[in-house]
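Input record (Table S2, row 294):
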Amino acid sequence: MEATVNVNGVVTDGDQAVVSVFDHGFLYGDGVYETVRTYNRQPFLLDRHLARLRASADRLALDVPPTDADLETRMRDTMRRVNPGGEVTLRILITRGVGELTYDPAACARPTVVIIARPHSGIPDTMLRDGISVVVASVLRNHPRSVDPSIKSNNLLNNVLAMQEAIRQGAYEAILLNHRGELAECSQSNLFAVRDGVVLTPPLDAGLLEGVTRNFLFEVGADIGVAVNEAVLREVDLERVDELFITSTTREVIPVVRVGDRPIGAGRPGPIASRLLTRFRALADTLTRTSVTS
Ligand code: PDD
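Output record (N-(5'-phosphopyridoxyl)-D-alanine complex):
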């Protein structure tokens, strides 16, 4: 696995990077993370990712001692030799740190800050051309009063269990329902439907991660005159939608053509997802061209 890793400021090749087994991130999943990708080798929407990282950490009463500027410098140092000339995916993790085997946060003197930089592997064109299949997982999205899905935490078993179901059924992603039976999001992405030319996505109240790409898509839609609104959606609504697609930092916009054994709309990628992706990429390109190059 090609990677360069920064552990508390020390950069090494991926296979040399080590974190203690007494780190509470390893022991308890006690930590938060972000996945950021570059366009034109510039981290895209970094300010939004770092704001969410801090918001997630606050919810765990977890300190993030480095400033945003320091985190950005560390990211740039870490990615410097990765995939020269190509794009990079960065995973930033902040864990509680190393301490006694207790849930008491006071046991850990300082958080561990890890940055993993890897070559970005974009979505294959065939996936955009043919679309993907997803399943509705039997496992429910965590209740917001349990491990709140709005916290981007390292505690990912809910997502892992859902994705295992997708893999077993040969699907690319798993949709999770919430405790009320509403569509919430997918294991690693947000979910959007198109009905009568209007794009709909579950509201935050459904219990989901407020995706940076999801939020950016409201702006992309406004830019091309496509309404993107929040709406409560249920599994039966999937029978009445014209298009379905997922979004995430690494996946941008991918059309979904099948949920389980049911085709979506005409059973092939639709025009609105495609227009949104084209505009999304153009905006990502423009926004990263105007920032300083590393
Ligand atoms: N996943 N929902 C979940 C559960 C996610 O894990 C992700 C992101 C998203 C989309 O968020 P964003 O648009 O900010 O990437 C929604 C990242 C890519 C990951 O797990 O690596």
